[in-house]
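Example record

Each entry pairs one chain with its bound ligand, fe (ii) ion.
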Amino acid sequence: MSETVSRSPYGSFRRCEVSGADIRCSTEGRANGTGGRYGKQRRFLNLTRGTDRDGPFPRVTLHRVASPCLSGPGRSYDEDMTTKTVEFTRMADGTREEYQYLHGLEREYISELPERLIDALRRLDDGLEGYKVTRYQHSLQTATRAMRDGADTEMIVAALIHDIGDDLSPENHSQVAASIIRPYVRAEVTWVVNMHGIFQYKYYGHHIDVDPDQRDAYRDHRWYDSCANFCERWDQESFDPDYPTEPIETFEPMLREVFSRQPFDPAIVDADAAQPTSA
Ligand SMILES: [Fe+2]
Ligand SMILES: [Fe+2]
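Structure tokens for the complex follow.
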């Protein structure tokens, strides 16, 4: 892969080529980007498919854009580069060039998932009230107990994010969290997160007229004990404001490691067999 970089009156110009893959992209744009949330500049490029825009906006030619040009280790765009938008207003009208371009942007956006998850966890500090600890503190405490119990990284991260859906999807927050973590961990961990809501009823279901024994339907499941342990030792225990809970910084490296993995890597998600089809 070779790259050339130059400056124009409108901002940065970069051409990148991936030899042997018939991939080449060249863009030039006027700097008008906005600041990003995570200490990075967000980039906005307007795509003109080889035609001139009206007025002073510079010509942009996009032969073919691939994600390595947009999200590779060297980052193809300078911080003052502007990001173009595609021209179509109906998905069916988009061109291959446009979708290749958007795919590159999406890969870059996905790479920031750990930061968005940490933000989402912090927002749980303003969520459901009435307990002695916030959902954010509960999440940190659950992860802390898992870590001190010798759980592996995947299960600790699961403990950290298991209630992350509480604010937007309280009625099925277990399934939300399970869907978020599923591409990155072994099936057992996904199953435990997916089922923890039902298993937790054991501790309080009878007080709200919900069957506390719903978990019994899974008594013979091979990961029943794993979920029961998750709830007994970590989740239901973690409402104590006096427990010495680790800060988010303790778990950030683990969260980043897990959510930076190749999604749906068979060596990871299929490491312990096919995904069960339980509720
Ligand atoms: Fe929960
Ligand atoms: Fe919980």
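Residues 1-80, 275-279 have pLDDT under 50 and may be disordered.
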